[in-house]
Write a structure and sequence with these properties.
This protein has 118 residues and is mainly α. It is built from five helices and no strands. The radius of gyration is 15 Å and the shape is flat. InterPro entries: TPR-like_helical_dom_sf.
């Protein structure tokens, strides 16, 4: 947890020095931190950090709909652990639709098989 927190802080300091964020690494640092929060049973904090990752990626001019698939899957799982099954289903379904719009339905890359939420 400590090193993941330091990674986020390091990316924030680097952004201040450069005057612009290193969006890719900033987003990845939030994902790393969120995974550590999940392991420490800090689900709310994890959800916030996964959503920060997603919000950091989406404004990029190079953004593709599949770039945030992993944090979408992770935040969906976090919602499920929290017991918020509607939010889990909503974000996982939206994420699947985004991937299918890039790779087509039933592709070999997409997350096609969700664990039932109930």
């Amino acid at each position: 947890m400590k090193h993941n927190s330091l990674f986020v802080q390091m990316r924030q300091r680097a952004a201040k020095v450069r005057g612009a964020p290193d969006v890719r690494l900033a987003a990845l640092s939030h994902n790393q931190y969120a995974v550590a929060c999940m392991m420490a049973d800090r689900t709310e904090e994890a959800i916030e950090s996964f959503l920060t990752f997603i919000e950091t990626y989406r404004p990029l001019s190079t953004y593709e709909k599949d770039m945030d698939s992993n944090p979408i899957l992770n935040v969906g799982f976090a919602y499920r652990l929290k017991g918020d099954l509607k939010s889990a289903l909503d974000i996982l379904t939206a994420g699947l639709k985004d991937r299918e719009s890039v790779f087509g339905p039933m592709d070999s890359v997409s997350y096609q098989y969700f664990i039932p939420l109930s």
